[in-house]
Amino acid sequence: MSFARSPLVDLQSNGARREAVKRRRVSSPAFLAAAVATVTLGPALLLATATLGGALPGPLPLFPPTNWWNTDISQAPVDPNSASYITFIGSTRTMHPDFGGNVSPGSVGIYGFPYIVVDSAVPPLAVQFQYSSESDGVDHTTGQSYPFYPIPAEAISQPHWIEGGDPGNVDLRSSSDRHMLIVDQDRRYLFELYNVFFDGTRWQGGSGAFFDLNANGLRPDTWTSADAAGLAILPGLVRYDEVFGSAEILHAFRVTVRATNGYVYPASHRAGSTAGALPMGARLRLKATRDLSGFRPEVQKIFRAMQRYGLIVADNGSDLYVSGTYDQRWDNSVLNPAFGAIRASDFEVVTLGYNGSVLAPPTGLRLVLP
Question: Model pTM?
Fold first, then answer.
């Protein structure tokens, strides 16, 4: 598989493994805050801007229309083992919106993924990784990290810039995923980090990944990303601006299940080998026969995207937890019961490894089985 390289990225393959640690989240209502920092770069004085939950650079959806996140699977064939996979999840298992706002009014704790939009003046920083051999921003000959990730200074001490809500100088790596998602709006670059912590001198993380939003680039085979499957996170989130915008949602959503077994396209990394479980990269599609008329218009829009683009298994966690952004505007008194009305039996599994151009599993897939 190919990987779209940044001019700054020198990638080499390795087989390090990680099992994702997931915390159950209960949704709540999003927050938009801008931070401006003055940064000196040599003789030049630049104004660097970082915005929490800022406007994403177009064109949208993120990545080209041909990307796996943006592939219409409404007519894709059903996998012959679909019923068995749904039984493994539990046919009566209900879906849950894994996003919201603050845990309580004014709290540090949050639900959902925050994301940061920066301009190209934010200086890149080095991050020391646990899984450096599968991370970007690392010289894979020496194993040394180099300045690569445009992390704003506010993320060190201010809440809500990192998944979970606590600032970067609080070490919660043993109990939380602590993702940080950053978009360079000028170059349309996406930087994603897993399990971050600022130790007072430098940033540390579990793994880190770079994605050029102008191109379709898979991670090298066997590589993780900031997500267990090796996929980007931000393009698969339910976002408030899309749900309440005038257009339809044109991409799939990220979903977790409690256990996985190997991986298929578009995933590149395994994080489990549980017999009978779905592989990373598998797609679930809400059945076209599922009546949506009883739901509010914004909820119908989310569910229509699930019928057209589906859900992509991207991490181990709670079954049928659908990922979205941290945004205090979410109304979880509407979202929670609506998602809870959808059961696993309302879904079907699309042919494993479906890539939008064939009606059978691609022959070049690597499906890792126990």
Answer: 0.86
